């Protein structure tokens, strides 16, 4: 029997239910300071509110207050909206480098009455804690396995997967982390979730394969902005990895970063891939990691897929079985681990 390791203990994989596969509950990201971007420092130090929300949407990482989610009570209320809409499990991708707080997340899970799965792993190189550089790939793999088998960051709260492994420049340090993740995956059977710079996806998959990882347990994250690259997606899916369209609700153009499609663009790509026979290798989420994404600040929160997107998908030809596959069947398969 397969199980899911949540922050409150193991559950049978077939009880995972409706799952959003890439979120953050409590997270501290880096911001770019005012001097770098020539913005008014007084403006940058404002708290997120509805009045400045529009400007922040085009400069998500620049505003210090926007890149931190640190209020457990607020996040609990947001998570309850997901539960009210029918959601049962949240995959929290907050790993080392993003200031994970497993004990606080466990309290959120208990207070909200919902399943939350947390990871072991390391984010992109600019976020690497100093200790990552001092460890070999073997030592990193041992750390990942320890956090899966015994607990994250010295707690008794066990990790349920590896991720989100950050790929930015794919330098030697990031390659070391991927190699360690592959070894830990092979030894534990858990899923691996990637924050992917798609310039390096093929190389990353090659490293996984070379080191014995089960590619069917790997999720290539942030495929949304590549939504028109169907041939690219097909080449990845033929290697048995899974694709995540995990920024539903983000419909913005960032002049210095990325251009996100709207939700119609996202599920149109999924529609094409489903017609090609790949629906069993696709998962979805919102990647809530900024204050402006929370309902409290005018965003869609963690419940957007269930409250809004699913209905529109059904109106555009998606069947109940396809929706269930994206939200229930695929997460259970990917994150489920065989009981010893």
Give a verbal description of the structure.
- The chain has 340 residues and is α/β, with parallel strands linked by helices.
- It has a single domain (2-338), classed as Alpha-Beta Barrel (TIM Barrel), CATH 3.20.20.
- It is 39% helix and 14% strand.
- The chain has helices spanning 34-37, 41-44, 53-57, 72-84, 102-112, 130-134, 137-149, 172-188, 201-210, 230-237, 263-275, 304-315, 320-335; strands at residues 2-6, 9-12, 19-23, 27-28, 68-69, 89-92, 115-117, 119-120, 161-166, 192-195, 218-220, 242-245, 282-284, 337-338.
- It has a 6-stranded parallel beta sheet with strand order 8-9-10-11-12-13. The protein has a 3-stranded antiparallel beta sheet with strand order 2-1-14, covered by helices on one side.
- α4 crosses α5 and α7 crosses α8.
- The longest helix is centred in the middle third of the chain and has 17 residues, at 172-188.
- The chain is globular, with a radius of gyration of 19 Å.
- The model has no long low-confidence stretch (mean pLDDT 94).
Secondary-structure map with pairings?
Blueprint: E1 2-6, E2 9-12, E3 19-23, E4 27-28, H1 34-37, H2 41-44, H3 53-57, E5 68-69, H4 72-84, E6 89-92, H5 102-112, E7 115-117, E8 119-120, H6 130-134, H7 137-149, E9 161-166, H8 172-188, E10 192-195, H9 201-210, E11 218-220, H10 230-237, E12 242-245, H11 263-275, E13 282-284, H12 304-315, H13 320-335, E14 337-338
Parallel strand pairs: 3-6, 6-7, 8-9, 9-10, 10-11, 11-12, 12-13
Antiparallel strand pairs: 1-2, 1-14, 4-5
Helix pairs in contact: 4-5, 7-8, 8-9
